[in-house]
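Q: May I have one protein plus its fold?
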Amino acid sequence: MDLTSDNPWAQIGLGRFEGQLLEHMAGSPPADLASLAQTAGVSTQQAERALQRLEEASLVIRVAGPPARWTASPPRSSLGGLLARRRTELARAEELAERLYAAYEAVSAPRTAHLVEVLERGEETAARYAQLLQSSNAEVLHLAKPPYVTADQSSSVAPEVAPGVRLRSVYETEGFTDAVSLETASRGTAYGGELRLASHLPTKLVVFDRISALLPVRPDQPAAGSLVVHSFALVAALAALFERVWEQAAPAFVGAGQDHPEWTGGPATPEWDGRTREILRLMATGMKDDAIARALGVSRRTVQKHVSDAGTALGAQTRFQIGLLVAERGWLGRRPRRPSDAAAEARAGRPGPDL
């Protein structure tokens, strides 16, 4: 029987020749076996086998008489009945598929849970995040972009990172004016956390000790839930993604209302205070004056004055020229670690990053 995809009769179980024979008989008067074989251009044996299959499917009727003749059954009723039987068979097959899937899930779900956890509610995400953060003992890698999912903001107790854990965070520049982000980043850098800014991040992500990773199901919809990944291969890939973003991001040091100690720089570095350097560094990441002012806890006018003074010292006419000249001369080196940081870390755990 020909049931290939180009056979229009295959869906009801007929071969190509059987379907063609039925089409001929539906538009012709009753005919005997020999006439049908001659019309179809086949042997009487082939025609007889096809007629027998059509009769078994109730699609043709044998009319008694010498010689016996054959005629098509009324197509609407005969084909309708055949299609109804096919639908019943398909429904049974679908039911069987559902039973097989349920049996598969019953066995596979426990194994899958060891690779990926699905957190469907915000409170589940916050609780699991805090647990993973507090159990980390080596490093936490963090990509932060809005919208954020954090623990209950009415609570004054933030998740903490244990002393000695290296915390590296990259924040998306556009979302870095958020009050929660600024406060968390400021506290994190104050206790030795490393912060960088990037104009665009591929996703939100937290990697804990390169053993587990937390990321949203849909980055634009926090309410859609989160995933906790335990698969070694997937966590390694996510950590590699973080490292690539980290290398391309711009270092930033945020501290509200505080003057930082001198930054490292070349021997030709002008006598700028720490605030000017910090403003210029944030400006180099693409942050606007208002965002820089909020990040540093100063006024917009203060930011503009520092930028203007830097431009005068460099002989630059535009902010773009300031950024180019400062970068070319390497005058925004890294800030040295403060001696008080180690003592502060020993006294208290560091606050965890935004999620």
